[in-house]
Write a structure and sequence with these properties.
Strand order of the largest sheet: 1-2
Structural class: mainly alpha
Helix content: 40-55%
Number of strands: 2
Order of helices and strands: HHHEHEHH
Radius of gyration: 18 Å
Distance between the termini: 55 Å
Length: 144
């Protein structure tokens, strides 16, 4: 059967290829043992470190690995390198900090959400307070 070029099956985006190569969360080690450890950590650190650093009180929703473990099991389980984070800090601020770390423009100490580097980035990126929900996630803007 003839198909014109325009009817070709769409190719996956670079993000889709990355996610497929990366594997699922369970494949990356986020298993039942992690779920229990993360819950225990969040009970002991109920507030986002990045939000606390700028005077906000936001519940912890994510246990963040300060240093990206990239499959290193020893680093993955090093509780001394875990930090409490809200969704926004994890998905926005930490993502940018890790990109700078990967380029070599910041060091490990800067990856902590209460570091001067992270605090400055937080203040720079912080959306209006009304645009964050109680878990530090962005909500749709409300038109008035």
């Amino acid at each position: 059967m003839f198909r014109p070029n325009s009817a070709r099956k769409p190719q996956p985006s670079s993000r889709q290829r990355y996610e497929a190569k990366r594997g699922s969360a369970r494949e990356r080690g986020y298993d039942a043992q992690w779920d229990r450890a993360a819950l225990h950590f969040k009970e002991g650190a109920p507030l986002c470190l990045g939000c606390e650093a700028i005077g906000r009180l936001t519940p912890t929703t994510v246990v963040d690995h300060v240093v990206p473990h990239r499959g290193d099991r020893e680093l993955f389980w090093n509780e001394g390198l875990w930090q409490p984070s809200c969704d926004w800090h994890h998905n926005v601020v930490k993502k940018q900090l890790e990109a700078k770390f990967d380029r070599g423009s910041i060091g490990v100490a800067d990856l902590w959400l209460d570091s001067p580097t992270a605090k400055a980035l937080t203040v720079h990126l912080l959306p209006d307070r009304d645009e964050l929900d109680e878990d530090g996630g962005e909500v749709e803007s409300r038109g008035l």
